[in-house]
Amino acid sequence: MAELSDRSGVPVATIKYYLREGLLPPGERTGPNQARYGSGHVRRLRLVRALLDVGGLSVAAVREVLAAVDTRAAMHGVLGLAQRNLELRAGQVDEQAKEWAVERVQGLAARRGWPVKPDDPVVESLVATLATLHSLGRTELVDRLDSYAELADRMAELDLSTLGGLPDRETVVEAAVVGTVLGDTLFAALRRLAQHHASARSFGDT
Amino acid sequence: MAELSDRSGVPVATIKYYLREGLLPPGERTGPNQARYGSGHVRRLRLVRALLDVGGLSVAAVREVLAAVDTRAAMHGVLGLAQRNLELRAGQVDEQAKEWAVERVQGLAARRGWPVKPDDPVVESLVATLATLHSLGRTELVDRLDSYAELADRMAELDLSTLGGLPDRETVVEAAVVGTVLGDTLFAALRRLAQHHASARSFGDT
Fold first, then answer.
1. For A29, phi and psi rounded to 5 degrees?
2. pLDDT digits (tens, 9 = 90+) for A67-119
3. In angstroms, rounded to a whole number, what is the distance separating the alpha carbons of residues B151 and A121?
4. Could you report the per-residue pLDDT of B159-185, keeping only the tens digit for each?
5. Chain B interface, mutation test: which of A105, A154, A155, most B Cβ atoms within 10 Å?
6. Where are the alpha helices (DSSP H) in B113-144?
7. The pTM is what?
8. Chain A neighbours among B 75-134 (CB < 8 Å)?
């Protein structure tokens, strides 16, 4: 375990915690206080760290995603699972604003051909965000919803293209999970830098 | 205060908490146990709720953003503040992966004409995400960094366009803050729906 810690850069206490939580399979027993860990363990450790630390998933969410990867669930199901586990925030909104937002989302989904189920947590998050903008009287983003959705479609094509040419199913699933979880963080940072650039141009660097 | 609670839908205990935390200015005293709250209070309450609940900012971050709005700080400065306060996650990464990532970010910034300072938390988040992808051996997203950055530039133009045509400076600042904070949540949800659609097309709905 000390060697696994050296190779992965993850402290021994943390590795023990992951083992207890079922995020890491046990090593092959070679003695009463010894176990052998392979390169699969190093790889899995890195994935767990990325999902927890950079992706911000909960331990329970990481366990569920890993179980889906390991049980060879259908590809599309695993992608959906990774997506559902990203906890999008939804605040409290009043009923009238919510109804208004549901109509906006249904119209958008119909125009883009997106399959949208009302009880999907992603749809709930979208409805809550639109309803909040509505109750704040800030509908500028909502007015441009179709333009944002068009960019989202282009980005989803780009996201999916990262999975082409990967050698095997396990790699595809791992790349999809990592890409979904880290992809938001990556793009949020790029968007901020681009906004900063555009804002400096519009308002001056003061 | 009971009336303010009715009009805003925010419980009295929560309003008292916001007052104590300096997120809401005190009402105009009209008696020993009475104060008058105006429509400005209702509007501010809604903004505070949105920043805290849907935007996920900390109380301290909301206080700082509101102070900047109220002190009529320079527009570009307020936008930068709202952006810095969005806590982008950054995990632990090793030095070699970090150097590799810094080079990628510098090259990208030069190609897009983005002004990039190494100690900017947004740049740190971007570097940490790229370094994590590198150490996981998942560089598919990094290979498409320029394509993602191009979409980020288009989105930033769209983001900034929401501020055109607003009547006064206070409205522009409020819209910019709300848009920055809620914009990420909104787009993350759109991106997931688009990914779901693209994934169902590529892998079948199984």
1. -60, 130
2. 766 765 555 555 555 554 444 445 556 788 889 999 999 999 999 999 888 78
3. 25
4. 888 887 787 766 777 777 777 777 877
5. A155
6. 121-135, 140-143
7. 0.73
8. 75-77, 79-80, 83, 86, 88-92, 94, 109, 112-116, 122-123, 125-126, 128-130, 132-133
